[in-house]
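Before the break, one more example. Copy the sequence into your notebook; we will annotate it together after we see the structure.
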Amino acid sequence: MADMYRGLAESTSRRDSVLGGVGVAVGVVASAVAGGVSARLVLDALTGADTVSWVLGRASGLASYVLLATLVVTGLLLAHPWTRRLRRPGPTARLAFHSGLATFTLLFVVLHVVVLATDPWAQVGWRGALLPMASTYRPVPVTLGVIALWAGLLVGVTARWAGRFVGRIWWPVHKVAAGVLALVWAHSVLAGTDTPLLRVFYVATGVAIAALAVTRYTARTPADRVDALVAGLAGVRR
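Here is what the structure looks like once it is written out:
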């Protein structure tokens, strides 16, 4: 019985290690590519734009995406079994950083929406910026952004009032954040990739975050491993 238990434990550990290692490797490579491309994009936006509103709209949209991606990454790390051994920064500091990042994300999203809604050249308008399929410019991609906007507000509001009015409902709703990022990613790719570098940037960041998510959901806590081993032993006994 002891040998059987040990074998199951080693098998689970090897599988988690391989999947986690692949996720880390892919994430590191994609993050490096995304960092280099983002630096180039900033230079292009500052030197190649024709109007101030275009620069502001493009920059605020890109900044919103980067902030949201970072917000989701910090959320994954907060819940990641690998980070439970870290003593610094403490849980309070991590949550404070996550909350502050959410505030900055909201500010840049608001700026992006306002610029698009007030710029006549963008052909979005207030209706297009707030209502689905109401934009003259690329209605489907813009609608993806609109849906992400309202879903993101729902996630933020329920998290802000967690423990007060929404009770435990906020946690399942909070998991919608990953879906919000997917919508924003699709919105960005379909509506905002006016240069090849942007496409590379979005692909690299998307792959990096997906790789981190793989490590998050394949990494097992001690409790998870005990449950898996118990289930395995129960199956063997049958």
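Confidence is low (pLDDT under 50) at residues 1-5, 15-20. The chain is about 80% helix and 0% strand. Try to locate both features in your own notes.
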